[in-house]
Amino acid sequence: MKRIITLTFAALLLVGCAGNVASHPAATAATKATETVAPSEEPTWNVYDSNPAHIWNRVFHLLYSRTASDGKEYGLGELDPLVWFDTTYLLTEPSHQRALQVLNEFLATHAENLIKNPLKRAMFQRDLWAVFDWLASQTDPYPSQRRALEMRLAQIIRRVALTREQIISLPDNYALAVQSNAFPANFQADNIQAAFLPADLFQPNSPWIPMGREGGPIAMAHTEAAPFFGRSVFLVFVQSPDGRTGTLDFIHSLNENPHPTLATGSDVALVRRMLLIDDEGDLVLSPLVETVQIRHFAPEQIFHEFELDRMRLLNRSINTLNLNTALFLLFSSHGDVFQNPGLPRLQATIPDICRGCHLLAGAVVDRGNIASILSYSRASFPLPDNQKPVLLATNWESEAGNVKNWKMNNMTWKSLKSLWNQ
Asked: If DSSP codes are grouped into helix, strand and coil, which group holds residue 14?
């Protein structure tokens, strides 16, 4: 029953967000998806080894690939598996039996010993953990099929686990991406639509300040809802055009001023960092940045999203962050686009997706749009009993503690731990 209630709550959050899209004239485009650009040739699933037939590749392929009605295959470049609350892929035949067979083969042959590279083992655990959480987040329908897959995935997740020291020693892919100079390091006033990757986002004494919430995770909807389920730490960063002091004053005003204002030229970034499970079964915050979503207020909002490229990361490229222009609607979708022909086309553009939740009121001339900062306004994502959030400057360690506490009390983690120990 607890699983059903939690899933229903997540679905209500997402539907509420979509409701704002429909009600706001400037955001109606968020409900319309754009056509996916089809790949020129069939993808080669050689992610973990150069041989596509390597069992690590075959496991990843089976769990992450989805085939559209026109026969085209998707999923190779996706950070998260293309599964939704109503997905029957992997739960019905023939995909279910194929999944059991390849997972059984992995376990029987101790295929975890085939690859020792810590980065590959980290990503493989992360990829399997995402599928496990999707299965464990609900019990109906197909409970026996879900359980069969969960049992096998849990053992592989444990077998490929790194030590805490290995996890902490993984590369800082954000710092490397900045060093690559693939993107401007600051907002470009002469080209306001140009995406930029802040060079000083994580630097001490930077005008970018991480903002937390007293009493729990700052980005509750991202932490608690599908497809994330607390496997990543989401942290909000704020930057004022008036420098670090101006940013601290702004965060303070969110608690003290009944009508706080957001200055034109301000920025808000939502950064997603990967959690991993060490060989002791404990959650550890890794250095790996999965996504960076940036909104610049000029005063209208300009949206950009960067996403970790798995292939570039495992090939040790300097820049491992892609600039996304379109995404599959996993976080705010209403169903599986591969098995429901009545749904819109496959992907939606980044600006349209972002406007769906973050363009909740008309921009205030010269002062930005404070209601669009959902950590403050809580629009569509209220706190229990509609509490007013208490916001404060924080750090990665503190926010990771909040997310870990939430995760350890969630049924997905309890399911994994019970199978981990068998």
From this structure: helix
